[in-house]
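Q: I have 160 residues here and want to know how they pack in 3D. Can you give me a structure?
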Amino acid sequence: MEKIASFTVDHLRLEPGIYVSRVDSWQGVDVTTFDLRLTAPNRELVMDTAAVHAIEHLGATFLRNDAEWKDRVVYFGPMGCRTGFYLVLFGQVTPQEVAPLVTRLFEFIVGFEGEIPGARPEECGNWHDSDLIQAQWWARRYLDETLRVLDDAHTNYPTR
């Protein structure tokens, strides 16, 4: 089997950032998958599942309600390694074009108060595993240390 593209990224040098993981086209429709990397893989702690779960619910809710981007959102969800999230959008989009949306998303998480959307037993299969305080800590860190200082080194994958 051929090695998939994401396994060619040097995870020993990968830093938090916004990366284009892949662009797929089918029957004239383009879809861009973004790697929203919140931690340096294999060098920093991974996010706790409760923080990831809270970010997933808040992120999906925010993105699907954003006036400018909601019709282009295909998917928002966590990476299995718990070092970041995938954001899938219709169209060919660059990290620089999506950065304002991602910044607003994480600002929303930092400022969120109240019950996490979709976090009731009838709405979620693991409704009790959610931690808003941890989610806000990770969101604040990503905003301050990555998104507010985003540069080429944090938007272009290091390859082996």
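Q: Anything worth noting?
A: DSSP finds three helices and four strands in the chain. The longest strand covers residues 17-26.
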